[in-house]
Amino acid sequence: MKNRGNLKLSASGDREIVMTRAFDAPRSLVFDAYTKPELLKRWLGVFGGWTLPVCEVDLRVGGAYRFVWRHAPDGHEMGMGGTYREVVRPERLVNTEKFDESWYPGEALITAAFTEQSGKTTLTVTMRYESRAARDAVIKSPMEGGVAESYDKLAELLGSPEVRGTQRRERT
Amino acid sequence: MQPSGYRRFSPDRLDATFAALADPTRRAILARLATGQASVMELAAPFDVSQPAISKHLKVLERAGLISRGRDAQRRPRRLEARPLAEATGWLEAYRRFWEGNFERLDAVLEELKAEKKRGRSKR
Question: What does pTM read for this prediction?
C-alpha cells in the first residue's frame, strides 16, 4: 500500500496521544468514511474475525454514537460510545469516548482534524485522557478490551488460508 | 484479557520508563549517553542546571533501568541500557500497528469512494 508507514504516533504531554496520517483523498471523503456507519463498518477495528455489527451515529453536537464489535468465532463483544461535542463537516470532529469495559479510568476526549492540500487529506487525531495513568494504560495495552485478542492470535489467523486473502495488509 | 504476547513486559518497569522519558532534560541525557558513556560532570555541562539537579535526574533514569553505572570508581560514568527503551517503544509500536491496520483498510474504502465519485461525475 502506498500510504503504508506514514502514520505518526506519539505521546504528547502528560495525558495525550497524537496520531497523524495522510490519505490520498479529499477531506470530504475522509470525513464521510470517518463518520458514516456503513463506511466505518468496513475499516474500524474489523480484522481477525472482528466485525462492527452495531454502529449508530447521531452526527450533531450533543448527539450520541454507539459502536459494538463482535468476534464471531467465540461470540465475544466489546462496546463503546460517547457524545459529539463539535461537528464541523468536513474539517473537525470532537467526541467523548468510553468503553463499556474500560481498561483505563475515565472518559477520553477525541479531536479529529481534517486538513486538505492538493486533494490529499491529513488527519490529526488527538486523544486526551483524564490522567497520565489512563493515557499510559492505553499505550501499553492497545489490544486489551478485545479490539483484537492479541498479535499472537492474529499471527495464527494470518497463517490460515481463508484469512490470508482478506487480511494480508495486517502482516508486517 | 491480557494479550499473551505482551506478558513478558513488566508493567511496573514500563511505568517507570514512561515517567523517566516524560522529562526533556532526561531525554537529552539519554540522547547524550546514546553516543557513549559519560561522567556526571560531562552530562551536566550542556545544561543550565546544577549538578545536584542532574544527579536527581540520573537517579530517576537509574531507577527506571534506563542507565547504569560503569566500573571506574572515580568517574562513575553512566551508560545507556538499551532494553527498557526497546520495551517502551515496543508498546507504542503495537499500538501504531493496530491503527496502521485500520488506516490501510480506510485507504481501500477511500479508493472506492473516489472511484464512485468519478463514475457518478462521468455519468452526468
Answer: 0.61
A67, A131, A143: best to mutate for the B interface, most B CBs within 10 A: A143
Question: Structural domain tally of chain A?
Answer: 1
pLDDT by residue for chain A (172 residues), tens only, comes to 455 558 888 888 889 989 999 999 999 999 999 999 999 999 998 988 889 999 999 999 999 999 999 988 888 888 999 999 999 999 999 999 998 877 777 899 999 999 999 999 999 999 999 998 888 777 765 443 332 333 333 233 333 333 333 333 433 3
Count of alpha carbons within 13 Å of A120, Cβ hemisphere only?
Answer: 7
Q: Is the ipTM of this complex over 0.85?
A: no
Domains of chain B: 9-123 (1.10.10.10)
Residue of B nearest to A147 (CA): B98
B55 interface with A at CB cutoff 8 Å: no
Query: With left for phi above 0 and alpha for psi between -120 and 50, is residue B42 left, alpha or beta?
Result: alpha
Most A-contacting residue of B14, B27, B100 (CB-CB within 10 A), to test interface: B100
Burial of A20 (0-12, 13-18, 19+ CB in 10 A): middle
Q: What is the CATH number of the domain that holds A59?
A: 3.30.530.20
